[in-house]
Specification:
The complex is a heterodimer.
Chain A: H1 2-6, H2 21-26, H3 28-40, H4 48-62, H5 66-70, H6 73-82, H7 97-116, H8 120-125, H9 129-132, H10 140-164, H11 168-173, H12 179-182, E1 189-193, H13 203-207, E2 213-216, E3 219-222, H14 231-235, E4 241-245, H15 252-285
Antiparallel strand pairs in A: 1-4, 2-3
Chain B: H1 2-33, H2 39-67, H3 77-99, H4 104-112, H5 117-128, H6 132-144, H7 147-162, H8 167-174, H9 178-203
Helix pairs in contact in B: 1-2, 1-5, 1-6, 1-7, 1-8, 1-9, 2-5, 2-6, 2-7, 2-8, 3-4, 3-5, 3-9, 6-7
The chains are: A mainly alpha, B mainly alpha.
Chain lengths: 286, 204
């Protein structure tokens, strides 16, 4: 995030900011089309598709779907609400069908947005709109849209995560969440279960908020939908869940060097990024 | 005759992307959700959808040439919204019947209509929707004042606009695992729901 801020991606320059990652996913075809037009006009740098593509690749190769757990603002709401109760009031089976439905939602938005030349997710479903749109009671369409924004927000971001302890917005609705699992093979960091150590107590299955752990016979497997929230690792009584790098457990030296390199690299960006954020806040309030 | 043929085809090509906009969201879920996963089966489904559209086009062509009126006063926005609602309901029923085949209502629907029945009827209803290229076609067809030329014009308009739909059966031919079949069912439900909402909003 600090890198993004430092690279001025969030500055208010029309055409340069990458905009919301969820909106970008839902309108991917349109963005690619606009990028094509920009390429034809020799102004490729003016549009966000290439830059967001590079960023996306960067995110995929570093944290993969961990973006949904560690960066995304909707993920934050969903995840926090899902942790409010100790036990779920309604027990939902950990099934891949929810995530497959999410893939259908993604394809639906790709199709409908591209064919109707309108960002349908943003204009009809995004709960974030409640925070920055003014309800216009004179337009029935807008009123309906606002009702849908609120309904989606309340139902999928608050109510369902609260009673089921599952991240329903991120797992069933969010178009962005459907994309990283498609690029799963390129992600070096993964969480896997050591089958020899696994006691089959299913504690990880119950705590996983992303429908990412499934039962296969007498084995538990972490599938491609894992959002790297590490909740399963904390719940495992036998330390059977581990992070792997290219399917191998990274050595102690590697982990130590990673921390050092990560710290040094972030030092290049974090102070400046914090300065930019403070400067922006200063500009808004004064 | 050559004029009717070329003008119909060129109009279809030039404005066919609009036809793809209205037809593709309905066609793609049918193709994905098909239980028969071979390329031939997908092509048969595609043909059934197109046959429905063609029948609607021909119906228009004959009525236009016979009556000599544009029918635009009949096919108002409200009537088109009703067509959209019917097509959307068909899509939802299709998805439900595929998702819950054991339920009595769903099994009755599945039993009564073969897999091709849904695409044919949907194609026919979508063909009755007066999109801009079709309206241009109607105006042109009226100037022929001849049933044969009118039919020829609409057949080639249909052929020209169909080109934009060709990638969909090819794409669905490659996506033929059980996952994509489920995806098609969910997609059908979403598309049906969306166009149902659009249709209802058009009626209000």
């Amino acid at each position: 995030m600090a890198f993004l801020v430092e690279m001025h991606f969030f500055e208010d320059t029309p055409g340069l900011k990458p905009s919301c990652h969820i909106g970008m996913a839902a309108n991917l075809f349109q963005i690619m089309y606009h990028q094509f037009l920009c390429l034809m006009h020799a102004t490729w740098f003016k549009y966000g598709a290439l830059s967001i593509g590079v960023l996306w690749l960067l995110v995929m190769l570093t944290v993969g779907q961990g973006f949904c757990s560690w960066v995304c603002f909707f993920g934050g709401i969903d995840d926090t609400v899902s942790q409010c109760l100790k036990r779920p009031l309604i027990k939902v089976p950990s099934t891949k069908k929810v995530r497959e439905f999410q893939l259908a939602v993604f394809v639906f938005f790709l199709l409908i947005s591209f064919l109707s030349v309108e960002p349908i997710f943003c204009t009809w479903l995004c709960p974030f709109k409640v925070t920055n749109e003014i309800i216009n009671p004179h337009s029935s369409t807008f009123l309906l849209q606002t009702i849908i924004f609120i309904a989606i927000g309340v139902f999928f971001l608050i109510l369902l995560p609260l009673v089921t302890k599952k991240r329903f917005f991120c797992s069933a609705i969010c178009p962005f969440g459907a994309l990283p699992p498609l690029l799963d093979r390129g992600v070096p960091y993964k969480i896997s279960i050591d089958q020899e150590k696994c006691l089959f107590c299913k504690k990880c299955l119950n705590v996983c908020p992303s429908f990412a752990i499934e039962e296969k016979g007498d084995k538990l497997m972490i599938n491609r939908y894992c959002t790297l929230c590490y909740r399963c690792q904390g719940a495992c009584p036998n330390n059977a869940i581990q992070t792997t790098l290219f399917h191998k457990r990274p050595s102690g030296i590697f982990r130590f060097i990673s921390v050092i390199v990560g710290g040094v690299v972030s030092l290049l960006y974090v102070p400046s990024a914090v300065f930019h954020i403070l400067q922006s806040i200063w500009r808004v309030f004064l | 005759m050559i004029q009717a043929l070329t003008e119909g085809f060129l109009l279809g090509i030039s404005m066919g992307s609009y036809c793809a906009m209205s037809c593709a969201p309905f066609l793609f879920p049918y193709l994905l959700a098909s239980q028969k996963r071979t390329m031939t089966a997908k092509l048969i489904l595609f043909t059934q959808f197109l046959a429905g559209r063609l029948v609607a086009y021909l119906l228009f062509a004959v009525i236009l040439a016979w009556m000599g009126i544009t029918l635009q006063h009949v096919f108002t926005a409200k009537v088109q919204s009703v067509f959209l609602i019917i097509a959307a309901c068909l899509m939802v029923i299709f998805s439900l019947s595929r998702s819950f085949p054991r339920f009595s209502f769903c099994s009755m629907i599945t039993h009564k209509y073969s897999e091709g029945g849904f695409p044919f009827i949907t194609g026919f209803i979508l063909g009755l929707n007066l999109c801009p290229p079709f309206l241009v076609g109607i105006t042109k067809a009226l100037s022929f004042q001849n049933i044969f030329l009118s039919v020829l014009f609409f057949v080639f308009l249909f052929a020209g606009s169909t080109i934009y739909l060709l990638p969909f059966p090819v794409l669905s031919g490659f996506l033929r695992s059980a996952l994509f079949e489920r995806l098609g069912r969910y997609l059908g439900f979403l598309v049906g729901g969306w166009f149902l909402l659009q249709g209802l909003m058009g009626l209000l």
